[in-house]
Amino acid sequence: MKPAPFVRHVPRTLQQALAMLSQLAGQDGRILAGGQSLVPIMAFRLAKPAHLIDINEVEGLDRLDSDGKALTIGARVRHAAFHGPVVDNPLAALLTYVARHIAHYPIRMRGTFCGSLAHADPASEWCLTTATLGATMIARSTRGTREIAAKDFFDGIMSTALAEDELLAEVRLPLLAADAKFGFNEFSRRAGDFAMASSLVAYRVVDSKIAEARVGVGGAEPSPRRIAEAEAALNGQPPGDAAFRAAALAASDAVDPLEDHQTNAEYRRDLVRVVVRRALEHSLQ
Amino acid sequence: MNAPTKGSRGDALKWVGRAIRRLEDPALVTGQGHFTADLPATHWVRFVRSPNAAGTINSIKTPDGALVITAADLTAVKKITPMLHKFEYKPVGQPVLADGVVRFVGEAVAAVVASSEEEAEDIADLVELDISASAPLVDARDALASGAPQIHTGAPGNVIVKGEVKTAGFDDVWASAAKIIKIDARSHRQNATPMEARAAHAAYDKTNGRVTLTCTTQMPHLMRTAIADLLGMRESDLRVIAPDVGGGFGQKMSLCTEYVLLVWLARKLKSTVAWTEDRRENLIASFHSRDQYVTLEGAFDKDAKLLALRADVVSNVGAYSCFPTTCGVEPLMAMAEMPGPYDVRQYQCLARGVLTNTCTMAAYRGVSRPIITFTLERLMDKAAKAFALDPVDIRRRNLIGTFPYTSATGLIYDEATYKETLEMAVHEIDVPAFRARQKEARAKGRYLGIGFATFSERTGYGSPAFAARGMAITPGWETVHVSVDPSGYVEARIGASPHGQGLRTTLAQIIADELGIPPDLVKVVHGDTDTAPYGWGTFASRSLVISGGATLIAARKVRAKLIKIASHMLEAAENDIVLEDGHAKVAGTDRSITIASMAREIYTQTHRFKGELEPGLSESGTYDPPGTFSNACHVAIVELDPETGFVKVERYLVAEDAGRIINPMIADGQVHGGVAQGIGNALLEEIVYDGDGGILTANLADYMPPTAHEMPHVELHHIETPSTQSITKAKGLGEGGTIGAPAAVLNAINDALTPFNAEIDTIPATPQRIRAALREATTKKSA
Ligand SMILES: Cc1cc2nc3c(=O)[nH]c(=O)nc-3n(C[C@H](O)[C@H](O)[C@H](O)COP(=O)(O)OP(=O)(O)OC[C@H]3O[C@@H](n4cnc5c(N)ncnc54)[C@H](O)[C@@H]3O)c2cc1C
Question: Ligand 1 mean position to B254 CA, how many Å?
Answer without folding.
Answer: 39
